[in-house]
Amino acid sequence: MIEAERDRRDVVTQPAAVSHALDRAGFKIVAGGIRQCLTERQQGHNPALSEAELEKLFLTLA
User: Does the predicted model carry a pTM greater than 0.90?
Assistant: First the structure.
């Protein structure tokens, strides 16, 4: 986009949109992990990740 001499606002908007999409994907992955762990715990199984591990994953997105 820069080489094509596109408007700088357009150039900045693209990485911002990608960053936002990656953040959302990360939150969805962690939310799915939390849901899976809760389901496993309700079924009497040991979840793959502890609460502390899930919290650490979640905070890496902040």
Answer: no
pLDDT tens-digit map of 17-61: 999 999 999 889 888 888 888 888 889 888 888 878 888 888 887
Triad 37, 59, 48: Cα angle to 5°: 20
37, 47 contact by CB (below 8 A): yes
* Structure token pair of residue 25: 């994907």
Checking phi first, is residue 44 left (phi over 0); if not, alpha (psi -120 to 50) or beta?
left
Instruction: Tell me the three-class secondary structure of the chain, residue by residue.
Output: CCCCCCCHHHHHHHHHHHHHHHHHHHHHHHHHHHHHHHHHHHCCCCCCCCHHHHHHHHHHCC
- How far apart (Å, rounded) are the C-alpha atoms in residues 31 and 36? 9
